[in-house]
Specification:
This protein is an alpha+beta fold. The chain has 5 helices and 10 strands; from the N terminus they run βββαββαβαβαββαβ.
């Protein structure tokens, strides 16, 4: 798995007025081009009467990116929106900046600033997620070890995903991949080798 990355949760929006033109910035978490195109179409249908629906999306998968000026002068809209995403270092996102023209021309520089600001407002309104390579692991142990073992969890920022208290304690946990070996070693030492984690699967997750 690759390194950590930043994305957003769900979607968000914000807007502002610039010389009587209304700019609305929309952002949504997407993981495929199909999801990005679906979001763009959704905004276009909702704001069919807008002058422009400029967009950009950036996917983590192979750093795939696309943008559109949607009728604005070339280089004044789509690229500024994409540049905001690149500068913020966020991926798996799609931003649409909708413009309702107010009758006053902004000029090339004004358009660049306005579309950049619209994209920035959308990003600021969203909740960022810091994703890291993680492991889902399982543990099985006697009740007598519960206190000792769970005492380690805060040290390694371990999250409990599921627990089952029957004849033995069974826990399903989430841990950063980078912390796994140190945790496994300390767990082995703490329990005299009687408890060892089983790796169930790898995935990216947001974990503190």
């Amino acid at each position: 798995m690759a390194e950590e990355y930043v994305t957003i949760q769900g979607e968000a929006r914000d807007e502002f007025i610039e010389r009587k033109s209304r700019f609305i910035g929309f952002i949504r978490h997407v993981e495929t081009e199909a999801e990005a195109l679906s979001f763009i179409q959704e905004i276009r249908q909702k704001h069919w009467d807008a002058t422009h629906n400029v967009y950009a999306y950036l996917l983590r998968d192979q750093s795939f990116q696309r943008y559109s000026d949607d009728g604005e002068p070339q280089g004044t809209a789509g690229i500024p929106v994409l540049s905001v995403l690149q500068k913020e270092g966020i991926v798996d996102v799609c931003v649409v900046v909708t413009r309702y023209f107010g009758g006053i021309l902004l000029g090339g520089g004004g358009l660049v600033r306005a579309y950049s600001h619209g994209a920035s407002l959308a990003v600021e309104a969203a909740q960022k997620l810091y994703m890291a390579p993680c492991l889902e692991i399982s543990l099985r142990f006697d009740y007598s070890l519960y206190g000792k073992i769970t005492y380690l969890f805060p040290k390694y920022s371990i999250e409990t995903l599921a627990s089952d208290f029957n004849e033995r304690v069974c826990l399903r946990l989430l841990i950063k991949k980078s912390a796994y070996h140190a945790f496994a070693e300390e767990l082995t030492e703490l329990t005299g080798g009687s408890v060892s984690p089983t790796v169930e699967k790898e995935k990216y997750a947001s974990i503190k």
